Amino acid sequence: MTDNNDDKRVETDGGLTEDDIHTTAEVGEQYRATVYRDIDYESLEVAPETSEYPDTDGKWGFRKYDMPKVPKVSHLVGPSAIMLGASLGSGETMFWPTLVAQNGWGLYWAFWVGVITQFFINTEIQRWTIATGESIFRAFDRMNGIWPWFFLVAGFFHVGWPGWAAGASEVFAVWTGVVPRQDWAIIGVATMVLIWLSYQAGPILYNAIEKAQLALMFIAIFGAVILAFIAGSVSQFANVPGGAVNFGALPQNMDIATFLGGLAYAGAGGYINLAQGIWAREKGYGMGTYQGRIKNPLRGSEPEEVHGGFTFEPTEKNLLRWKQWWKVTQQEHFLTFVVGLLVVATVAMTISAQYAAGTDQGAINMWLDVIIPQLGGVQTQLMYAVIFIALFSTQYAILEAFVRNSVDIIFEGYGRSAGWDLSRVFLGLLTLFTLWGILIIVAQFQQPWILLVIGAAIAGAMMWPYNALVTILNTTRLPEHTQPGWGRIVAMWWATGFFGYFTILLIGGVLNSPDAYGLSFPMFETTVGVVGSAPGGYALWVFALVVQIYTMYRSATAKMNASGTVEGADTARGFLS
């Protein structure tokens, strides 16, 4: 099985050279868009059920083919820009600046810890795709067919009620004055239509969202850097180092669920994170380059097939290519997602701390009614632009992530066997979800209280099971050379434990909030220190502990059992591999 870009192979003294591992500059440039290599899937050899290849769980097999050559990281930027866009308008310009304005810089440690945690979560989600070309939902289906449908339902409760469409529209109405502030719904409808139309810009649906998000992120980051120098808040940067190392500090009387929710949203959170692997497949990361991209049926585009899973023989060449693919995709996510969040969010926090200290306003009102009126002409316009772009990019990316995740689940769970066309399923759900959003905006419906309760909890709560599942998946189903290193396994243990802790506190809080949610079940009361919880609360804590121990045991034993089972695996391994 050969890589069809291997027509030039340079060897010296029988060894491999850079030409065997990395693409030429010309081929690398193709990754600035997306790369698909059409191969005859049915003619490929099915990988045997041995330790050198992924575990099939008794389902469809993996076809053997070479890991493709590796481009430069600068050619791969894209999937993480979309994830950055999904994050900026939620926690990074809304929740965290408000939290710092209200409580001071002592909480900054929690922000950057949350961002780094999501870096590990997101890159582990895309590990399976890079190694096999399958989405994370296909992987979950191998473990148990109920999981993809569970996350689809949970995802709808998370982002299915499009309240996230309101923020950008209200800011744009105030900024431009094209409509009165109370008539923001007109702008809301226009933005939903604009997003739908943007997908018609080319034959490959992913390319439209990537190009738009890259442009929006460049403007947002550039604008934030300028604001750092001209907004009059530069003195606030002196407080950042102290807050960054103030580990564990919480203000008195602070609602723990609010704080933990902020830590959960130091990134996109919930259903959105699960799109990272699908975006990696569409871009052509690793073995994903052999999977078809979703095309636009309205443009008469010839469809490309999304096949079953792929795997590669652990030869020295493939192991070195895997190692380099893993390196450049981690770099892409860190330099785009992590650095972008830290820059934009930190600048936003300095401005909110300078101009809105002690505010009791919500995030949108804080920016529009408290901070911006205090700024000068240029600063005002730039602040409006950055906040609008942050909110609109989130609206754009949430719609994209919801549709792309849901289409993958529906198509693989039912549509493929029913003979549906993947591109038409995508366009149909995109259209339906856009119309649903427009209906909610035009009708000015208020979110039903039960959806408010579930939606507030589900983003963080759904991250608990999928962090555990991803940790177990990548250690028990992948062969030794593509498994995560011990450093990453420990990071995922932390992520699973934190979101489990957060979920149990949230469940206990919701079940004992008669004023907020109309629920009063004192037997399920939970406390921050665990001790002092009610009997039902203790039962919840025991359940969380069992999940944590099970996750750690399964992943640790699988990692140890895999050691030494693949010849030459050390070539691709490392502490953070």
Features:
577 residues, mainly alpha, two-stranded antiparallel ribbon, two-stranded parallel sheet, 6 strands, 62% helix, disordered N terminus
Describe the model:
Helices cover 62% and strands 2% of the residues. The chain has 20 helices and six strands. The chain has 577 residues and is mostly helical. The protein has helices at residues 18-21, 25-30, 79-103, 108-132, 136-143, 146-159, 166-176, 184-198, 205-230, 240-244, 256-264, 270-273, 275-283, 316-355, 363-371, 377-418, 422-443, 449-476, 486-510, 535-562; strands at residues 11-12, 15-16, 62-64, 309-311, 512-513, 519-520. The radius of gyration is 24 Å and the shape is globular. The longest helix is centred in the C-terminal third of the chain and has 42 residues, at 377-418. Strands 1-2 form a two-stranded antiparallel sheet.
List the helices and strands and how they pair.
Blueprint: E1 11-12, E2 15-16, H1 18-21, H2 25-30, E3 62-64, H3 79-103, H4 108-132, H5 136-143, H6 146-159, H7 166-176, H8 184-198, H9 205-230, H10 240-244, H11 256-264, H12 270-273, H13 275-283, E4 309-311, H14 316-355, H15 363-371, H16 377-418, H17 422-443, H18 449-476, H19 486-510, E5 512-513, E6 519-520, H20 535-562
Helix pairs in contact: 3-9, 3-14, 3-16, 4-13, 4-14, 4-18, 4-19, 6-16, 6-18, 7-8, 7-16, 8-17, 9-14, 9-16, 11-19, 16-17, 18-19, 18-20, 19-20
